C-alpha cells in the first residue's frame, strides 16, 4: 500500500509535482556528517536552517534519515536502543542542517548519561533560533507512548513547530493504518505547536518519502 492510496479526507500532505521534484533535487545533493554535539557550546553558528528528527529509541529514525537522503549509512542504524548519543549534524550541501536527536525514552545507557541527553535536547529545542521544524517519529504499530507525549509537551512549551511522521507504516494493513492516522490527527488538536498534517512512511518500501522531502524543501 502506498501513501497515495489512502483516503483523501485524512490529513496527509499532498504536494504539487513541482514541489515533489524540488524535494527530490534537494535530497539528491551531497549530504555529509558534520559533527556530533554533546554540549551546547559545540553547536555550530546559527547560519542556516535546521530540520530536526526526534523519536523514541529504536523508532526507525536513522533508517528514515538514510532513506530520505538516499544513502545506506549516513546515519548509523542499530537494533540497540540509545545508539545515537548526541545531536548529530548533517550538512545537506549547504542548503540546511539535518539534525538527528538522541532517541528519548528507553536507552541502554547509565541513567546519568540519559539525563544528560535529555537536558541537552531541552536546551537545544528551547534556544535554537534557526530550527524551523521538528519531525517527531512515531511507530505506526504502537501510536503515542508517554515519552512521545512528554516530547510533544516540551515542543508545545518551546513553541517549536512540529509534525508527526509515522514510521514502519508497511507493517499495518490499510484499515489499521487509516485508524492510526485518524487517532494521531485527533490527538494533535490538543497540542498548539503541532501541525495537523502528518506523514505515513516506510523506509523499507519508500512510502511517503517523496512527500516528506517535498515538505522539507518548502522550509528552505
From TrEMBL:
One Gene Ontology MF term: metal ion binding
Named cofactor requirement(s): Mg(2+)
Transmembrane segments: none
A Pfam family reported for this protein in Swiss-Prot or TrEMBL: MMR_HSR1
GO process annotations (BP): division septum assembly
Keyword Metal-binding found: yes
Keywords, ordered alphabetically: Cell cycle, Cell division, GTP-binding, Magnesium, Metal-binding, Nucleotide-binding, Septation
Domain EngB-type G positions: 47-220
GO annotations of cellular component type: cytosol
PANTHER family in the record: ENGB-TYPE G DOMAIN-CONTAINING PROTEIN (PTHR11649:SF13), MSS1/TRME-RELATED GTP-BINDING PROTEIN (PTHR11649)
Family in the record: Belongs to the TRAFAC class TrmE-Era-EngA-EngB-Septin-like GTPase superfamily. EngB GTPase family.
Job description of the protein: Necessary for normal cell division and for the maintenance of normal septation.
Protein name: Probable GTP-binding protein EngB
Organism: Thalassospira profundimaris
Amino acid at each position: 500500500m502506498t501513501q497515495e492510496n489512502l483516503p483523501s479526507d485524512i490529513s496527509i500532505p499532498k504536494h504539487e509535482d513541482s514541489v515533489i521534484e524540488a524535494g527530490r533535487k534537494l535530497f539528491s545533493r551531497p549530504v555529509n556528517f558534520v559533527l556530533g554535539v554533546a554540549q551546547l557550546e559545540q553547536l555550530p553558528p546559527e547560519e542556516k536552517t535546521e530540520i530536526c528528527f526526534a523519536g523514541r529509541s529504536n523508532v526507525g529514525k536513522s533508517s528514515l534519515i538514510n532513506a530520505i537522503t538516499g544513502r545506506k549509512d549516513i546515519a548509523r542504524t542499530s537494533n540497540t536502543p540509545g545508539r545515537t548519543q548526541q545531536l548529530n549534524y548533517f550538512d545537506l550541501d549547504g542548503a540546511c542542517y539535518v539534525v538527528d536527536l538522541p532517541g528519548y525514552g528507553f536507552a541502554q545507557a547509565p541513567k546519568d548519561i540519559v539525563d544528560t541527553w535529555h537536558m541537552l535536547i531541552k536546551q537545544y529545542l528551547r534556544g535554537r533560533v534557526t530550527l524551523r521544524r521538528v519531525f517527531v517519529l512515531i511507530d505506526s504499530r504502537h501510536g503515542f507512548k508517554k515519552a512521545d507525549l512528554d516530547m510533544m509537551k516540551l515542543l508545545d512549551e518551546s513553541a517549536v513547530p512540529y509534525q508527526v511522521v509515522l514510521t514502519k507504516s508497511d507493517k499495518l494493513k490499510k484499515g489499521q493504518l487509516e485508524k492510526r492516522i485518524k487517532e494521531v490527527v485527533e490527538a494533535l488538536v490538543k497540542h498548539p505547536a503541532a501541525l495537523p498534517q502528518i506523514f505515513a512512511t516506510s523506509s523499507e518500501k519508500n512510502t511517503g518519502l517523496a512527500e516528506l522531502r517535498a515538505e522539507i524543501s518548502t522550509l528552505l
